[in-house]
């Protein structure tokens, strides 16, 4: 009994058991099964990383679309500004010639 109690105290097993109990309680409401390793590291990593990477790729694509739209609007604005500058230069030249 003393050795068992000593092992419990040294390994902080009481705290570990209580955290394990908490994890089990939280998992009761889950509908999907818990993740279990298959024994093949490549498949384990793939099963975990692929959904994350697909979600990340989708997010990056939406950010890219937003930035492309923003850049398109800025490019239109720049072209409109250039057209306005060209019109004003023509107007200035016309008034300058009329003045002379």
From TrEMBL:
Domain of life per record: Eukaryota
GO CC annotation terms, alphabetical: MIS12/MIND type complex; nucleus
GO biological process, one term: chromosome segregation
InterPro entries: PMF1/Nnf1 (IPR007128)
Chief place of localization: nucleus
Subcellular location: Chromosome, Centromere, Kinetochore; Nucleus
UniProt keyword terms in alphabetical order: Cell cycle, Cell division, Centromere, Chromosome, Kinetochore, Mitosis, Nucleus
Entry protein name: PMF1 factor
Species assigned in the record: Oxylabes madagascariensis (white-throated Oxylabes)
Lineage of the species this protein comes from: Eukaryota, Metazoa, Chordata, Craniata, Vertebrata
Gene: Pmf1
């Amino acid at each position: 009994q003393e050795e068992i109690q000593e092992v419990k105290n040294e390994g902080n097993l009481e705290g570990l058991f209580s955290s394990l109990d908490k994890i089990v309680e939280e998992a009761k409401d889950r509908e999907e099964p818990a993740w279990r390793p298959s024994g093949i590291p490549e498949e384990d990593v793939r099963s975990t990383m692929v959904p994350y990477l697909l979600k990340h790729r989708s997010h990056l694509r939406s950010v890219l679309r937003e930035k492309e739209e923003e850049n398109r609007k800025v490019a239109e604005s720049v072209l409109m500004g250039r057209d306005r500058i060209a019109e004003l230069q023509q107007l200035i030249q016309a008034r300058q010639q009329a003045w002379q």
